[in-house]
């Protein structure tokens, strides 16, 4: 097979001298500094982006603040929902364009870009659109004593908090960007997005389409850059909430800074070292395709994906034998080739980080399968399985955020739970068993925001998502996000 044909519209978009998207239009960058967007499969520059100055970031926040007060707050919930639906329609019409932009800049397989990133972006936008008309308060009957026949009633209302700062990571820039856009716009907030400097293009394209969808100028703004752009954004006075997805260290730094900025709200979706427990009764042949897909989707660069396998000792030999055979069949290649099963890591910085973990594993002779770095062009590493004998092993403690998974055995459930919870992270976990009673007994004991049974790495807009411990703060999706984007106002009336 060969690479898909790059659309003329994609080539034209990449060739543009992109500025920032503020107040519904392109703003030429004040600084001449440019960042190259690198295709991780070829190591070639495919586009450049601007680096925002403090003044440009503040102009974007000012635009969002103005749009919040003058337009978006006066737009009816129904209208807000309709405009998000229209945006989803436009993403659908331009689906191949978005898929190619994502694959060219992130190394994501073209089939994954099409069928997960872009397809799910549309699903999530439509889901969020539905919430616009369903956000409401409650009525209460106060118990204040009535002295002279007066009566009291009370109610609550949910009001949009204002301008959101959305800091978007590089692994699923379009989809995660749209989680932030959808949450903000449906609740009546406006947003300034700061995409990752590695994968900026699809959100810039989306901002243009938002205007076509009838979303008023200033409701969605995008500023680009690296180094200080994120900090300029969260320091801007009118930011009411920061929604960040990324590493634990940066999340904590952002949280501290936001608290100092007059208690700006934060929601943090951070890393994980997620556990998958394969129980004694599990059918290895039946679970392997699903487990492998969940583990190595987008080369393991998924915060929810498993990186720690706990295998019951009675199943260990069978598991290792069968997973090794299956992993050796994973075909690595160009992400733009529809037959490729495994692409490159998304950027050089991340590639160097994963390489260090692989070297550590090689030195300690822990590699069961994979472990090698591709010698040629591109940020390719093999899907890798490592054996560990202690839960204190750094390879079992630290998030690689790559296609590197470690395996350990367990004998009984108490030991399993104790080992699974021996982590600073708590994003996701899975149990692989046909014994429903066992699963139901284990689930409450697992320290994780999401627990799956016989599946892993599946997100659905109807199901809340977020981490416990160092994996995050707050929840996305379902009705759980509403509290983060709205202020609850209490009203009491004497009559
Ligand atoms: P980071 O977690 O460091 O986040 C980078 C983003 O945060 C950039 O947009 C950056 O913008 C912004 N930022 C950094 N510091 C601040 C600050 N003090 N205030 C405001 N914004 C700030 O991600 P990396 O891309 O460096 O990836 C590092 C690791 O993060 C990966 O190896 C992986 O482990 C993890 N990760 C987790 C993801 C997840 O889904 N949970 C997704 C992607 C990565 P600027 O430079 O302009 O400040």
From TrEMBL:
PANTHER family: ALDEHYDE DEHYDROGENASE-RELATED. It comes from Acinetobacter rudis. This is Aldehyde dehydrogenase family protein. It holds the Pfam family Aldedh. The active site is at residue 269. Keywords: Oxidoreductase. It comes from the Bacteria. Residues 26-491 form the Aldehyde dehydrogenase domain. GO terms for molecular function: oxidoreductase activity, acting on the aldehyde or oxo group of donors, NAD or NADP as acceptor. Belongs to the aldehyde dehydrogenase family.
């Amino acid at each position: 097979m060969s690479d898909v044909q790059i659309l003329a519209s994609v080539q034209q978009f990449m060739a543009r001298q992109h500025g920032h998207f503020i107040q519904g239009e392109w703003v030429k960058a004040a600084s001449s500094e440019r960042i190259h967007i690198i295709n991780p499969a070829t190591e070639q520059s495919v586009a450049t982006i601007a680096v925002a100055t403090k003044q440009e970031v503040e102009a974007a926040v000012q635009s969002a603040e103005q749009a919040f007060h003058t337009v978006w707050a006066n737009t009816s919930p129904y209208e807000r929902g309709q405009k998000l639906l229209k945006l989803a329609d436009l993403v659908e019409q331009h689906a191949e364009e978005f898929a190619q932009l994502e694959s060219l800049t992130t190394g994501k397989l073209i089939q994954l870009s099409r069928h997960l990133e872009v397809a799910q972006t549309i699903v999530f936008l439509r889901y969020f659109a539905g919430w616009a008309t369903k956000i409401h308060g409650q009525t209460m009957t106060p118990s204040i004593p009535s002295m002279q026949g007066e009566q009291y009633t009370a109610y609550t209302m949910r009001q949009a908090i204002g301008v959101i700062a959305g800091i978007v990571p590089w692994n699923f820039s379009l989809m995660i960007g749209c989680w932030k856009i959808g949450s903000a716009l449906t609740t009546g907030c406006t947003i300034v997005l700061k995409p990752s400097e590695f994968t900026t293009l699809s959100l810039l394209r989306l901002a243009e389409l938002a205007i076509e969808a009838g979303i008023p100028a200033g409701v969605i703004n995008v500023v680009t850059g690296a180094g200080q752009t994120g900090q300029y954004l969260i320091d801007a006075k009118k930011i009411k909430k920061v929604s960040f997805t990324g590493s634990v260290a940066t999340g904590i730094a952002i949280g501290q800074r936001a608290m100092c900025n007059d208690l700006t709200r934060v929601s943090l979706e951070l890393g994980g070292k997620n556990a998958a427990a394969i129980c004694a009764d599990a059918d290895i042949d039946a679970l392997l395709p699903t487990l492998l897909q969940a583990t190595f989707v987008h080369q393991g660069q998924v915060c929810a994906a498993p990186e720690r396998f706990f295998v019951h000792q009675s199943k260990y030999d069978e598991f290792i034998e069968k997973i090794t055979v299956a992993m050796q069949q994973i075909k690595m290649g160009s992400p733009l080739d529809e037959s490729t099963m495994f692409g490159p890591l998304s950027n050089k910085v991340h590639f160097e980080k994963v390489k260090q973990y692989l070297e550590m594993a090689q030195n300690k002779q822990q590699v069961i399968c994979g472990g090698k770095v591709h010698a040629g062009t591109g940020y390719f590493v093999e899907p890798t399985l490592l054996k560990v004998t202690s839960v204190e092993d750094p390879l079992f403690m630290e998030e690689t955020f790559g296609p590197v998974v470690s395996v350990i055995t367990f004998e009984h459930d108490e030991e399993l739970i104790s080992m699974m919870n021996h982590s600073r992270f708590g994003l996701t976990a899975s149990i692989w068993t046909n014994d429903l009673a066992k699963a139901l007994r284990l689930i409450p004991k697992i320290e994780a925001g999401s627990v799956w049974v016989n599946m892993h790495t599946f997100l659905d807009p109807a199901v809340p998502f977020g981490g416990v411990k160092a994996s995050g703060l707050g929840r996305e999706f379902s009705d759980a996000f509403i509290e983060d984007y709205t202020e609850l106002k209490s009203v009491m009336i004497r009559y």
